[in-house]
Specification:
By secondary structure, this protein is of the alpha/beta class. The chain has a domain of about 190 residues: Rossmann fold, CATH 3.40.50.300. It contains 9 helices and 14 strands. The structure holds adenosine-5'-triphosphate and magnesium ion.
């Protein structure tokens, strides 16, 4: 669903890259926390996915779309297919709660009739039916964030990306928002959320990916806990093999995973409404890819991806 392969990003003027050779694969329906100290590269990674920034090298494939081939003029359309939630909510101040959600649907071309059906259901999901006629300035921080989430989920995205959605909220409200994200995840949406909130991460026991200085230093697939300084796994762990009558010391070679060659991808034209899939890999390239990447690449369809199942 989300695949980053050896992604590196260096901002102009910065000595160190913000992301340094990051590879990450998130499967459909996963709930993933992205953690790390301030400056670790979390927001940069999110911006790679929303195409606010582009990597210097590496490959990003989301819902079967190779982001290299999403042209500038198609970026707004691409982003509308993702659910994106920000710390500062980004609501329209002069529109009511109802109108904020309705507007998100208007711009994707939903009919008035469908909008009138969808908005009340989504407001009910985020428990804001009673606030439908209020303006953002009349809401609490948690309520504003719920409007922002409602706006994203109204379009039924397959992926929801949230960069510190609870960063400006108190403890109780944070819990509410996380509970809501869990509910959305239970309905089948893949969730990637960055946070500094240790308690939330530890209580949820989901997958936790830790970034440090632009590198992934730990990826706890289950029951992850919040740790910022996990030491990377040593490359050549030593182990003792005890054979009958012999004590034999063996140095286990770390599996040599050949670095995937920079994929040469041919693609058909991508338009906002007709996002076409790509020929991802030649057999030679596939041979050098890790099994995870191979699996993800193989699932990328070569036919046109229908509008509804892109993300
Ligand atoms: N627009 C930019 N121009 C130059 N450098 C940037 C820019 N955005 C981020 N950086 C640098 O890239 C690195 C990663 O920043 P990023 O915002 O991704 O960190 P973060 O993990 O989201 O931190 P925080 O937890 O504080 O939000 C930092 O060293 C930061 O100074
Ligand atoms: Mg950040």
């Amino acid at each position: 669903m989300i695949l980053l392969d050896s992604v590196t990003k260096r901002y102009p003027g910065d000595a160190k890259p913000a992301l340094d050779n990051v590879s990450l694969h998130i499967e459909p329906n996963e709930f993933v926390f992205l953690v790390g100290k301030s400056g670790a590269g979390k927001s940069t990674l999110i911006k790679m996915l929303t195409k606010e920034e582009v990597p210097d090298s590496g490959k990003i494939i989301i819902g079967g779309i190779d982001l290299d081939y999403v042209k500038k003029r198609h970026i707004p359309g691409y982003r509308r297919r993702l659910g994106v939630v920000f710390q500062d909510f980004k609501l329209l101040p002069r529109r009511t709660v109802y109108e904020n959600v309705a507007f998100a649907l208007e711009i994707i071309g939903m009919s008035g009739k469908d909008i009138r059906k969808t908005v009340p259901k989504v407001l009910e999901l985020v428990d804001l039916s009673a606030q439908a006629k209020k303006f953002p300035s009349q809401l609490s921080g948690g309520q504003r964030q719920r409007v922002s989430i409602a706006r994203s989920v109204a379009r039924q995205p397959k992926i929801l990306i949230a960069d510190e959605p609870t960063g400006s909220l108190d403890k109780l409200t944070t819990q509410e928002i996380i509970d809501l994200l869990r509910k959305i995840n239970d309905f089948g949406t893949t969730i990637l959320v960055t946070t500094h909130n240790e308690n939330i991460v530890n209580n949820l026991q989901k997958r936790v990916v830790t970034l440090k200085d632009g590198r992934i230093i730990s990826d706890q697939k289950n029951n992850g806990i919040y740790k910022l300084d996990a030491t990377p796994v040593p490359e050549k762990p030593e182990r003792i093999i005890q054979a009958p009558g012999h004590a034999l010391k063996e140095t286990k070679e770390a599996p040599k995973v050949a670095k995937p060659a920079a994929p040469k991808i041919t693609t058909e034209k991508i338009t906002t409404e007709k996002i076409t899939a790509q020929k991802i890999a030649t057999p030679k390239m596939a041979a050098s890819m890790s099994p995870t990447i191979k699996r993800a690449v193989r699932t990328t369809p070569r036919r046109k991806i229908a509008k509804s199942n892109v993300i």
